[in-house]
Amino acid sequence: MRIDVVSIFPEYLDALRLSLVGKAIEAGTIDLRVHDLRAHTHDRHRTVDDTPYGGGPGMVMSPVPWGEALDQIRESDSEGTPRLVIPTPSGRRYDQTVATELSAHPWLVFACGRYEGIDSRVAEHYAAREDWDGVAEYSVGDYVLAGGEAAVLVMVESVARLLPGVLGNAESAQDDSFAAGDMADLLEGPVFTKPPEWRGLGIPDVLLSGHHARIAEWRREQARQRTETHRPDLLPD
Ligand code: JDN
């Protein structure tokens, strides 16, 4: 999968070169290319923002450098068709279903906004371009960030771990909270490892019993209780 990210803080995306996503890059599973939006400005101050039409607080990102940056990315490969992904608090909620959808695309381009966001004509333009595979706007949660970079870290990591060969067997994506499978739609319950006693706290007897069916049933009940406490919206009435 090819992933391009455009930002005025390209160093913010350096974290993607660590750990799991970093290994996927080194293995060639992900081709990550990070671009500085300011490379597509032409004035002395490398300006990327301007005042909002209609008035109001803050500044809006100009469509001009965005158009240049995105067109240059598009022109770097005459074969594929990129999908444009824009993090924004006004987008569709990003969840595991969206991550799975994105993981099926061979080429994603993430546009990181700052300030009050990117001039809306950018999304409108690339949605109408036949040489692009559409545009999607996502919110990673009901809170407001200062820009799209942290949201892109979330989205790229959640997509990367779904790609074939990225996760080892030991850390299968199948039984995570929010993934499909036996514990579908339940949060994960508590987990334990050695030592068997730590600061006066032991391990639930059932986990030491060796009764696999009872362990599975206990875990299911713990998951249900955890979900009832933290995410009752996920349980059926
Ligand atoms: O997801 B966010 O809270 C978010 C905030 C901003 C953004 C993109 C995403 N661009 C400017 C603020």
Rounded to an integer in angstroms, the radius of gyration calculated over CA atoms is 22 Å
Low-confidence stretches: none
From the N-terminal CA to the C-terminal CA, the straight-line distance is 40 Å
Q: Order of strands across the widest beta sheet?
A: 2-1-6-5-7
In short:
The chain is of the alpha/beta class and 237 residues long.
Describe the structure.
With 237 residues, this protein is an alpha/beta fold. Helix content is 30%, strand content 16%. It has 7 helices and 7 strands, in the order βαβββαβαβαβααα. The chain has helices spanning 19-26, 63-75, 96-103, 121-128, 149-160, 205-208, 212-230; strands at residues 2-7, 31-36, 49-50, 60-61, 83-93, 107-111, 135-139. The strands form 2 sheets. The protein has a 5-stranded parallel β-sheet with strand order 2-1-6-5-7. Strands 3-4 form a two-stranded antiparallel sheet. Helix 3 crosses helix 5 (149-160). The model has no long low-confidence stretch (mean pLDDT 96). The structure holds 1~{H}-indol-5-ylboronic acid.
